[in-house]
Fold this protein.
Amino acid sequence: MNTKEKILITATHLFNEQGIDVITIRHIAKEMGISHSNIQYYFKNADDIIATIYNNHIKELDELPVFKNLTLDALKSSIVLVMEHIYKYRFIYIHFVVIARRLPSVKKEYAKRFAIRQQQFMDLFAYYREEGIMRKDIPIPVWESLINNIYIIGDFWISANELNTMLKGRKAVDYYGRLIEQLFYPYLTELGKSQITLSK
């Protein structure tokens, strides 16, 4: 592992534990036992580190095997996989509004990704309707609202957990994963309900 990678790992840990409003380059340097000028050789400031961590996070998300298997249980597993990854970088989601304001490139990337995922979900739900897994009597705007609800929970459950449930690690992922999973249930046909294993 090179110095740049160690800086990113250390920064992610400190941001997760203490937040971006507390941690500076000097804190990261102290944690690593190096001078802050060593960090500035790679990153000009903390925002530069945050932007790099975010971009790496997005690249890793894109490599996850989601939307590859169209069974309902595989979709559920994919959602949990994404949420596990979000928990790994939870500081981004706790501070996302602040980060997006400070780093317009992050806000732009988020909007682009949301549009892509929205279309992927619409295509997936259309496939489920054709297969008789999801209901055909629901208007398109309601499907669009479902996708928005998935993303509201998916992107902001970290903040809700921080303020309310205060669960750690896998327990947090499982709890909020169930919330997303249960969003689908009213949209399923009897065939669809027979094909999904609801988490307890």
User: Anything to note?
Assistant: The radius of gyration is 19 Å.
